[in-house]
Specification:
globular, 139 residues, mainly alpha, three-stranded antiparallel sheet
Length: 139
């Protein structure tokens, strides 16, 4: 399977966000804009107005943006990078025992609703990353 062009996918996400009045700039604040877009997509999903293929394609595009923002904000310095699972779905891992699935998180937000809030997901990942980077006090 060919390697995905994450930069190209992110450019598509930025353009799609711009069309919806949002500014995706890889900042933590932009994740609130992503959440706003996904709220609208969840409404369309509940009304049966978007197809499963559309949901998946949007999940990949916006999930890659979410993942890149996580990398830029904290995870790259923790050694995280993109990998793909056996089905070719990208996820972030440190190559050890930690992984994050931003694509599935976005999909869950579209199909599930507010309990799968991407802003809360983003903040939780940053919090865990921050705590992991802290050194224990000297004994």
């Amino acid at each position: 399977m060919a390697e995905l062009d994450y930069s190209k996918i992110c450019r598509q996400a930025v353009e799609t966000a711009r069309e919806r009045g949002a500014d995706f700039d890889y900042s933590p604040e932009s994740i609130s804009e992503l959440e706003r877009i996904l709220i609208g997509q969840n409404e369309l999903y509940k009304q049966g107005r978007i197809s499963d293929i559309y949901v998946w394609n949007l999940s990949v595009m916006m999930g890659v943006y979410l993942g890149q923002t996580l990398l830029f904000c904290a995870l790259s310095e923790r050694g995280f990078a993109w990998r793909t699972d056996a089905d070719g779905v990208p996820y972030l891992t440190d190559g050890k025992d930690s992984y994050v699935s931003p694509i599935y998180q976005v999909r869950s937000r579209i199909t599930g609703g507010p309990d799968d809030n991407v802003r809360a997901f983003f903040e939780a990942i940053l919090d865990v990353s921050f705590r992991a980077s802290m050194k224990p006090p000297m004994q």
